[in-house]
Amino acid sequence: MTSPKKSGAKPLIILVLVFLLPIVAAKIILSLNLYHGGATNKGELLSPEINYASLAMENPRPREWQLLYLLPSDCDALCLDRLYILKQSHVALGREQNRVHTLILLAENSDISALTLHSFETVKASIPMIDMLNDQQMIIVDPLGSLVMRYPKVAGRAKQILQGKSLVSDLRKMLKLSRVG
After folding, report:
1. Distance of CA 89 to the CA centre of its chain
2. Are the beta carbons of 168 and 87 closer than 8 angstroms?
């Protein structure tokens, strides 16, 4: 009595499908942009090519983390809130304060009378830098001089405070991961 011979092709096809199906599914999901990774940053990441050199400006604090803000020509309530948020964000860094410097960039027509309430280090901004920061945004700069993250203008004091918390949160993560600066 002979038993019928079983085909070896069926298990082989199943084995190949088990390994290929996840790869094909991942390729389809990624190519159709259906997957959006879980980013934990709250600011807007900038292109790695944007740095002081590309903006025709010398790094005022090389090898140190920086918070930048361009002082507008008319420092209204929004501007004063931004300056306050920058000051409080720096204080909120706690023991990491000495690793981060807040720099206020000045254009030819900046309203420097707004700086009487706070003591910030000021730096003259280049024209390309002024063009980039024209909308009262705050920028985080890494120790190598690359502009890393942007926080655009938001309306309302409550939203500004939330944005300040986001800035501190993102900056703490970067400081924790950074071995430079």
Report:
1. 15
2. no
Q: How many helices and strands (H and E) does the chain possess?
A: 4, 6
How far is Cα 123 from Cα 146, in angstroms, rounded to an integer? Answer: 17
Radius of gyration of the chain (CA): 25
Query: Residue 130 and residue 68: Cα distance in Å, rounded?
Result: 11
Q: Rounded to an integer, what distance in angstroms lies between the CA atom of residue 148 and that of residue 82?
A: 19
Which residue has tokens 């990774």?
37
Q: Given pLDDT bands bounded at 50, 70 and 90, which one contains residue 3?
A: low
> Strand, coil or helix: what is 4?
coil
Q: Where do runs of H (alpha helix) occur along 52-115?
A: 77-92
Say what the pTM is: 0.77
